[in-house]
Design a protein that fits this description.
The complex is a heterodimer of chains A (about 100) and B (about 250). Helix content of chain A is about 80%, strand content about 0%. Chain A has about 100 residues and is mainly α. Chain A has one domain (about 1-85): Helix Hairpins. The longest helix of chain A has about 30 residues, at about 55-85. The radius of gyration of chain A is 17 Å and the shape is elongated. Chain B has about 250 residues and is an all-alpha fold. Chain B is built from ten helices and two strands. The N and C termini of chain B lie far apart (about 75 Å). Helix content of chain B is about 65%, strand content about 0%. Chain B folds into three domains: about 1-80, NADH-ubiquinone/plastoquinone oxidoreductase chain 6, subunit NuoJ (Four Helix Bundle (Hemerythrin (Met), subunit A), Up-down Bundle); about 125-170, no CATH class; about 195-250, no CATH class. Chain B is elongated and about 90 Å long. A two-stranded antiparallel sheet of chain B has the order 1-2. Classes of the chains: A mainly alpha (about 100), B mainly alpha (about 250). Chains A and B meet through helix 1, helix 2 and helix 3 of A and helix 1, helix 2, helix 3, helix 4 and helix 5 of B. Chain A: One of its GO terms (biological process) is ATP synthesis coupled electron transport. Chain A: InterPro entries: NADH_UbQ_OxRdtase_chain4L/K, NUOK/Mnh_C1-like. Chain A: Keywords: Membrane, NAD, Translocase, Transmembrane, Transmembrane helix, Transport. Chain A: It is found in: Membrane.
Chain lengths: ~100, ~250
């Protein structure tokens, strides 16, 4: 099978994730969409590694996973902290930096 | 179609389905489950694309740890954290979807164009140098990418500390005693005692049935708040109530 199909699939998943980030209001769902975009990029890395016969792509995908895990931990802690003070997980609520 | 083609088309379409479910689910918990579904399918795709190590890491880290963390935070934030339908920027949704479609077309056409007729080397040779996929990745991590790998450990420790600092709440005041809590409850002027229990009358005694007040209307505050937030309130069947009244009056 041609791995370029996998790259196209990853492009589609990335676009769906981007639409989710733009459209949804709930901070947690937006965050999950970001995770989906990271996963789509990983899929492209894996497919490129296979096309080029080179394991570097898989190592980069591994590092992306590690960074994503760290990002999830800190991001969710921030969401919980904001929820505690504002009683809301909507991304439209925190607007103190607006003016 | 070969077996690999089948895996790609089935898992790939499931992954897209899960992604669409993530974007279009009304409730955040459903979105989280759709993402977990997508990630499992992506793991299958990794394994099908000669990355068994990454496939396993994907299942353990993403579906195992990350998504469970998401569900845990959803539990903390509450079940009523569904999206508001009010648009802060009016009419933002349609341009956003249009831009997303444009991005998809751009990526698919651009990348697809670049990849037409590109051959596939395959990883058999690269894997055979060290005797396997895991060994090959291990050699790269501990030789070429050693500094990045060490920096990663610092990143993980920083993230763990950051999460603890952010989520920790210092207690500024001493813990209130039971007596103080009781006084505060009465001084607040709201309902001091128990709220009415949910509808324990005649035929239903489930917690999703509102209590009936003497005049036959229902008491909303007798339903537990999470059930109200989910919209899981059983409608009171007034026909049944009247039947019971008749039996009572006989």
């Amino acid at each position: 099978m041609n791995p370029s199909n996998v790259v196209i699939l990853s492009a589609i998943l990335f676009s769906i994730g981007a639409v989710g980030v733009l459209v949804r209001r709930n901070a947690i769902i937006v965050f999950m969409c970001v995770e989906l975009m990271l996963n789509a990029a990983n899929l492209a890395f894996v497919a490129f590694a296979r096309m080029n016969g080179n394991l570097d792509g898989q190592v980069v995908a591994f590092f992306v996973m590690v960074v994503a895990a760290a990002e999830v931990v800190v991001g969710l802690a921030i969401i919980v902290t904001i929820f505690r003070t504002r009683r809301s997980a909507s991304i439209d609520e925190p607007n103190l930096l607006k003016y | 179609m070969s077996g690999e083609d089948w895996v790609f088309w089935v898992s790939g379409s499931f992954a897209v389905l899960g992604a669409l479910g993530l974007v279009f689910s009304r409730k955040a918990v459903h979105s989280a489950l759709w993402v977990a579904f997508t990630m499992i399918n992506l793991a299958v795709l990794y394994i099908a694309n000669a990355a068994p190590f990454l496939g396993m890491v994907q299942i353990i880290v993403y579906t195992g740890a990350v998504m469970m963390l998401f569900l845990f935070v959803l539990m903390v934030v509450g079940v009523d954290s569904s999206d508001s339908l009010i648009e802060t920027l009016r009419g933002q949704r349609i341009p956003a979807i249009g831009l997303g479609l444009g991005l998809a077309v751009l990526l698919v056409v651009g990348v697809g164009n670049g990849l037409v007729n590109s051959g596939t080397v395959g990883l058999v040779e690269a894997n055979s140098i060290d005797g396997g996929n895991v060994e090959g990745i291990a050699r790269l991590i501990f030789t070429d990418y050693l500094i990045a790998f060490e920096a990663t450990s610092a990143l993980l420790i920083t993230a763990a500390l950051g999460a603890m600092v952010l989520a920790h709440r210092e207690r500024w005041l001493p813990r209130a005693t039971q007596q103080e809590l009781s006084k505060a409850r009465f001084l607040s002027g709201s309902h001091p005692g128990n709220l009415p229990t949910p509808g324990v009358y005649a035929r239903h005694n489930a917690v999703d049935t509102p209590a009936l007040l003497p005049d036959g209307s229902t008491s909303e505050e007798s339903i537990p708040r999470p059930l109200q937030a989910r919209g899981d309130i059983r409608a009171v069947d007034h026909h049944e109530v009247n039947e019971i009244k008749e039996v009572d009056s006989q």
